[in-house]
Design goal:
- With 434 residues, the protein is an alpha/beta fold.
- The chain has two domains: 265 residues, no CATH class; 144 residues.
- The chain is 61% helix and 8% strand.
- It has 17 helices and seven strands.
- The chain has a seven-stranded mixed β-barrel.
- Strand 5, helix 3 and strand 6 form a beta-alpha-beta unit.
- Helix 1 runs antiparallel to helix 7, helix 7 packs parallel to helix 9 and helix 15 runs parallel beside helix 17.
- It is globular and about 75 Å long.
- The two termini are 45 Å apart.
């Protein structure tokens, strides 16, 4: 047992050294690539099926069943293509050396991903964001709200092209002026993000070392996964790490450790496919729910003696909270009009909006550490676990520029540590007075 404990300590030391070395290589190169990838272009509708680029080239909008013609250089697919064979479109695209645009939040996204994966020229790809007149009317979008929406598309998702459709009652020119003032003049043609990390294997090895330092057998068993499926291997090992890392003896360091875990996961997945949103981190909802669920289960078992009298109310609350939590963990979650306005205000003040789960969860983390004897402290612990996995999850969005993810996470962590400092001081003074 003593030898196993010493082995774990050695593995943890090796993990820290190798992780710092890996990130010292990864972070500067990623920041440089992100700066280049922030470039964007603007396409303006000629009609429903053609978009004019600054270069004079045309992006043709293809609906389900329509072929890619030889005169087309840029195309984007729109609508439900599930009844069609992606291989046919991939062959047509390669035959004519066509650039394919993936339209965000459109039914065609998964089909486009399959088409690009089947191509001999997958690098001829770009991503598009647009605002439709129907959205303006349904969501009651204002000039300011559209500006922040386009800003998020560029800043948080490194979108390659903004497609301007006819919008009634909207000052499009003014919005584009604000975008240009912040991000610079649009480029002539859309191009994909091109960054990749050559030492992704080193980042994965660091993740394995982290798992090994907590559970050696799991670390050994997870290593070969890299040679089976790299993307899935990173997901499995990193999700294991979110659970195992929580048992770390120095609880105050947990926010920083989960930040480190997120950075390593980002480095391990930083390739053309993930940075262009063609491949996604697998198991997002599992990574967000597994640790909080285990913490909840542990707390219920520990406190069941007195909690059981609240079980009907607690069960109803758990179902509602769980449904809300999981449903809000994706890009397509419903957002109320007031919340959209609040988000815009926060982004205007703070550059990037911090995640609500972390702004609430990290002060709760502070209360949990300072008042462990409090009867309801397990509620703070659950909220703290949600903040920790949220920090990790921030870096699973590989397409998001690293500086944005770092800013968002560090801001929330600092709020948590400031809350911890203040709560500790207040408690000490209160004890002295007593």
């Amino acid at each position: 047992m003593k030898k196993l404990s010493e082995l774990k300590k050695v593995a943890e030391l090796i993990f820290i050294v190798s992780a710092l070395l890996c990130l010292a290589i990864f972070i500067p190169s990623r920041l440089v690539n992100d700066r280049k990838d922030m470039a964007y272009t603007v396409g303006v509708s000629i009609d429903e099926n053609r978009i004019l680029l600054p270069s004079g080239q045309i992006v043709y909008v293809i609906d389900p069943g329509e072929p890619i013609e030889d005169y087309m250089l840029y195309v984007t697919l729109r609508g439900d293509f599930s009844a069609f064979d992606p291989k046919i479109y991939a062959e047509q695209a390669d035959l004519h050396s066509v650039w394919i645009g993936m339209l965000e939040f459109n039914e065609s996204i998964e089909f486009v991903r399959r088409v690009v994966s089947l191509r001999k020229q997958p690098e001829k790809f770009f991503r598009i964001h647009t605002v439709r007149q129907e959205e303006v009317e349904k969501m009651q979008l204002t000039d300011s709200m559209i500006y922040y929406r386009l800003r998020r598309a560029i800043l948080e998702r490194s979108i390659d092209m903004i497609w301007i459709q006819p919008l009634e009652g909207i000052d499009v020119k003014g919005i584009l002026g604000r975008i240009e003032h912040q991000f610079g003049k649009p480029k002539d043609i859309p191009t994909p993000n091109s960054g990749a990390f050559q030492f992704r294997w080193l980042a994965f090895l660091c993740l394995v070392l982290l798992v090994f330092s907590r559970k050696p057998l799991l670390g050994i068993l997870s290593t070969p996964l890299w040679f089976w499926n790299k993307s899935l291997a990173v997901s499995i090992v990193s999700i294991l790490a979110t659970v195992l890392l929580y048992s770390h003896e120095k609880k105050k360091l947990l926010p920083l450790l989960y930040l480190l875990l997120g950075l390593l996961t980002n480095a391990a997945l930083y390739d053309f496919w993930h940075v262009n949103d063609l491949s996604l981190y697998r198991g997002v909802k599992l990574s967000l729910s597994l640790l909080p669920a285990l913490v909840l289960l542990k707390s219920v078992i520990k406190e069941w003696r007195w909690l059981k009298k609240y079980w009907p109310f607690g069960l109803a609350l758990l179902i509602l909270a769980g449904f809300y939590y999981i449903s809000r963990s994706g890009n397509t979650a419903f957002v109320a009009y007031f919340e959209r306005q609040l988000r815009d205000v926060l982004e205007g003040l703070l550059w990037v909006r911090p995640r609500f789960k972390e702004i609430v969860g990290y002060p709760a983390f502070a209360f949990w550490l300072v008042f462990p004897e409090f009867k309801w402290s397990f509620v703070f612990e659950i909220l703290a676990s949600i903040a920790l996995v949220s920090t990790f999850n921030t870096f699973c969005h590989i397409k998001t520029p690293l500086m944005v993810s770092l800013y968002r996470s560090i801001f929330s962590i600092v709020v948590g540590y400031v809350a911890l400092f203040v709560i500790q001081k207040v408690r000490k003074r209160a004890i002295r007075r007593v």
